[in-house]
Amino acid sequence: MKRIPFLDSHTGGEPTRLISEGFPPLGPGTVAEQLATLEQHDNFRTKVLCEPRGNDVMVGALLVPPADPTCQLGVIFFNNVGYLGMCGHGTIGLIASLSYQKKIQPGTYRIETPVGVVEATLHPAEADSGYPNRVSVRNIPAYRLLEHIAVQIDERTIHGDVAWGGNWFFLCHDHGLEISLKNLEQLTEFAWRVRETYTKMGITAIDGHEIDHVELFGPSSDADSQSFVLCPGKAYDRSPCGTGTSAKLACLTADGKLAAGQVWRQQSIVGSIFEGSVQVQDGNIIPTITGEAWVMGEGQLLIDERDPFGEGIRM
């Protein structure tokens, strides 16, 4: 019987499963190199994250040693269908989880990810409020690659920007749908069709990379905007999406609609909110995203060698 300890949290409703031991040896390389090794042991991802032990919406955070001597932490993020370059909600969940475990104190930590170094600041908790769980993530540089791309859906034309915020996003405002949980099925199917359509059109990111996240925006009475984010495995993001908000901030900045230091409040489809802002350094747009995470479960995953679904159910 194999046992893998885990700690589950959620950030704005989106779950993160922290795994810090029990994974295959990944070698002493960079986090990107360790990810390449982990991909050769992909059954580990499916064991700990896919059904029956996990679910489609959960994101895994594998705590690994950083190669960068300026970093205190390294992390690899993965989901139900593969691996993520960065994950905003997952980074907030990682830091809040380590705070709950009393492994870190309020302060700023440098984290090596497969796509670069991010900084996470754990803010002090208010008096007698439990473990600190409010985190600001200073992301890698974000930018818009393509602007106002036309995509035809149901004999009408919508438009979107392609932007990088740690993952690739197609961001659309003129979809005509209400961003609401009551429209969840319609939003999911529409966003998936948008992705299928621009993929068939040959629209890709740099080096032919697939644009695997779709983000639909609408008005909000509680924030600057509300969004529906469809993730690569066709699960919707319960949080406002940290890398998606970073991509949004990059587009706003490029359009002259967001000044450096100005706070943008991005609301998710379930109502949770991230606060975002940017700094511009040497021509690069550096987003910072702030949110809260709550630990909600801990224990051990049990993997019986006799279990026919011991390695998980693959998508």
Structure description:
The protein has 5 helices and 16 strands. The protein folds into 2 domains: 148 residues, Diaminopimelate Epimerase, Chain A, domain 1, CATH 3.10.310.10; 144 residues, Diaminopimelate Epimerase, Chain A, domain 1, CATH 3.10.310.10. With 315 residues, the protein is an alpha+beta fold. The model has no long low-confidence stretch (mean pLDDT 96). β12 and β13 form a beta hairpin. It has an 8-stranded mixed barrel, surrounded by 4 helices.
Q: What is the residue-mean pLDDT, rounded to a whole number?
A: 96
> How many structural domains?
2
CATH class call of the largest domain? Alpha Beta
CATH architecture of the largest domain: Roll
Q: How much of the sequence is in beta strands?
A: 35-45%
Using only CA atoms, what is the Rg?
19 Å
What spatial order of strands do you see in the largest sheet? Answer: 1-2-3-4-6-7-8-16
Q: Name the poorly predicted regions.
A: none
Query: Biggest β-sheet, characterized?
Result: 8 strands, mixed, barrel
Percent of residues in helices comes to 10-25%
Pattern of helices and strands:
EEHHEEEHEEEEEEHEEHEEE
Q: What is the overall number of helices?
A: 5
Kindly list the characteristics that best describe this protein.
38% strand; 8-stranded mixed β-barrel; alpha+beta; Diaminopimelate Epimerase, Chain A, domain 1; 315 residues; globular; 16 strands; 2 domains
Summarize the structure.
This protein is an alpha+beta fold and 315 residues long.
In terms of topology, how is this protein built?
Layout: E1 2-11, E2 14-19, H1 31-39, H2 42-49, E3 59-64, E4 73-78, E5 83-84, H3 88-100, E6 107-113, E7 116-122, E8 134-138, E9 143-153, E10 156-164, E11 168-172, H4 184-200, E12 213-218, E13 225-230, H5 242-254, E14 264-267, E15 273-281, E16 284-303
Parallel strand pairs: 2-3, 4-6, 11-12, 13-14
Antiparallel strand pairs: 1-2, 1-16, 3-4, 4-5, 6-7, 7-8, 8-16, 9-10, 10-11, 12-13, 14-15, 15-16
